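Annotated sample (chain length 385).
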Amino acid sequence: MLNDPNTRRRLLLRWAPPIILLLLFSAFVVRINMVDKTELVSREGQTFEKGVVTEILQDNLQPDGTRVGEQRVRVQMTTGVRAGETLEMTSASGYLFGAGCTVGMKVIVMQSVAGDSTVASVYAQDREMVIYVFAALYLLALCLVGGMQGVKGAAGLVFTFFCIIFVYLPLVYQGHSPFWVSVFVCTVTTVVTMYLIGGPTMKTVVATGGTVAGVCIAGLAATAFSAASGITGWNVSDIESLLTLSNTNGVQVGGLLFSGLLISTLGATMDVAMSIGSAISEIHAQTPDMPRRDLFKAGMRVGRDMMGTDSNTLILAFAGGSISMLVLDYAYDLPYQQIINSNNIGIAVMQGLAGSFGIVLSVPVTVALAVLLYTRHKKHSAAAE
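Output written by the structure step:
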C-alpha cells in the first residue's frame, strides 16, 4: 500500500505540515522558557519534602470536634536531606496551612536546614497522588466513553494545559501583553484541538474560525464594558501581590483579568463552533442542492438550540466562583447600591456577560463561515458550466 505513489503523497500532505509545525512550536517553547526568574522571596535552605506521621505527641482536638492551637507530631521523612530520619515538628490548625494529622497520614513538610540544625513544620496533607489519580480517572472515562474521539479530546486537553503552563505564563512573565498572549494561546490550542478531532477537513476550518471569532468578540465585549464601567484589571482582589510583579518584572497586570476571560471562554465557544460546523456539514452532505439562504437558516436553528445552554454554563461557572462573596454580601445585608457598584460584582458580571456575548455572536459567524465554505465548490462548478 505504501508503494503506491498516490498513497505516499496523501500521507505526506496530511502529516508533513503538522510535524513541521510541531517541531517549530517545540523550538519556540524551549526558547521562551529560557528565563531567569527574579527572586521575590528568599528560600535559601528551605525546601518542601514528603513524610509520614508516625506519632502524635500532643493533639489539639477539642471535645466538640474543632482544633485549637498546634499539634506536636513525629514525622518520618521520605525525601530530602533528612530522608529516613524522624523529626519532631508542629502542625498548625489553620484553614490555609497545616493539617489535622493522624498516624500514617502522608504530609508535606516545610523544612529549613542549616548544617546540623533543622526547623520543620507540617505544611499540608500530601495531595499529589490524589490529584494525579483523579486526573487520570477523568481522562480514562473520557477515552472509554468517547472512544477514539475521546482519546483525541484528551490529547487536546493535555495540549491546552501544556500551552497555559509553558507558553502563556512565560510570555506574560516576560512582559508581553496578557491579552494578545491569550489570543495567541487560544488560537494555537483551537487549531490543534480541532485538527485532532476533525482532521484536515472543512469542518475543522469552520470550527477553528468560529472559535477564534467568538473568543475575540468576548475580549472586545469585556474591553467595552471596562471602558464604560471604569473596571480594569487593576481592581482585582490580589492586586497588592501582583504589583510586586509589575515593579520587578514589568508584568502587565492590568491585562490579566481580560486574558483570563478569553481562556475561560475558549471551551464553551469551541463546543458551539464544532457542533455547528458538524451539523451544517451533515446537512450539506445530505442535501447538497440546498440554497445558501436555507442552509444558513438551518444552521441558525441548530445554533439557537445551543447558545442558551452554553451561555448558562459560562455564567453559572463564573457565579459559582463568586459564591462565597455572594453569601457574605447576603449575610451582611449590604445596601443595593454598595453591592451593584462593588468591583467584585462588576468583575463577575463582566466575565459572565462578555463570555456569553462571545458564545452568542459566534453562532452567526460560524454559520456564515460554514455556509460560505461548504457551498463555494458548488458555486464554482455552476460558474464553470
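Annotation: Residues 380-385 have pLDDT under 50 and may be disordered.
Annotation: The domain at 130-367 is CATH 1.20.1640 (Multidrug efflux transporter AcrB transmembrane fold).
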